[in-house]
Design brief:
233 residues, alpha+beta, five-stranded antiparallel β-sheet, four-stranded antiparallel β-sheet, 6 helices
């Protein structure tokens, strides 16, 4: 597995086109790999996420992939081709370090959603909504969505000094974008906080396979960094 990042230059028209359309950016990421490349297997799959840096005006594209990518087309279209290319690192050394009991700072952009089990609408709809995917709207709903899935992905959310989940839910959006002739509506949120690994195998799988739906549209990529509150890391 590999983890990469590339800065996107928002002054360029191509960058704004990619940033504004998860569908177009998904296609651009896919083109970083040849047709015969492994895109999804038992080890992992292609995942990506856009991050806005607080220190500069760049938007960073993060990608996790089973094979090493070539992002030259994105650099030429949406980056700084004269000065900056991209960074790619072998992800395996970090994955091999994962162990039960470790504490990490994490970041995840996800599509907190559920399949409707009943129609709670005030008006009858002929087609119904049972079985349809609905995005969670409130902060509490979105946080609970993550907490409910943490055990199955090998981690637990740590609590803060007030005994509340030490996680911030931010950049909450309801996005609409074109996909071919259809309009896609996607509820997204960014989770950032502290976690503890409870199952190393499941947690490594979460890092490589992602969490939740809409992975092709920039959701599901979980990244970790040393927890500054944990002196052992």
């Amino acid at each position: 597995m590999f983890i990469s990042r590339i800065p996107l230059n928002q002054a360029r028209y191509g960058a704004r086109q990619l940033i504004g359309s998860p569908y177009k950016l998904h296609a651009a990421v896919e083109c970083a790999f040849p047709p015969n490349a492994v895109r999804n297997n038992d080890e992992g799959r292609i995942l990506w996420r856009l991050d806005t840096s607080v220190n500069d005006s760049a938007v960073w594209l993060y990608v996790v992939s089973p094979e090493k990518p070539d992002f030259m087309h994105i650099v030429e279209q949406a980056g700084w081709p004269t000065y900056v290319e991209w960074e790619t690192k072998n992800y395996e050394p970090l994955l091999e370090r994962i162990a039960k009991g470790q504490q990490w700072h994490f970041k995840l952009r996800a599509n907190p959603a559920r399949k409707a089990k009943e129609d709670k609408g005030r008006r009858h709809r002929s087609d119904g909504i049972v079985g349809k995917v609905q995005g969670h709207i409130t902060v509490d709903q979105q946080l609970q969505w993550l907490i409910d899935r943490s055990t199955a992905h090998g981690f637990t959310i740590l609590n803060d000094q007030n005994d509340q989940p030490d996680v911030v839910v931010k950049e909450r959006h309801k996005e609409n974008f074109k996909r071919a002739d259809a309009t896609v509506t996607l509820v997204t949120a960014v989770f950032e906080g502290r976690l503890e690994v409870t199952d190393a195998v499941l947690f490594r799988k979460a890092l490589c396979q992602g969490i939740g739906r809409a992975k092709g549209f920039g959701c599901g990529l979980l990244t970790i960094a040393p927890d500054l509150n944990n002196k052992a890391e």
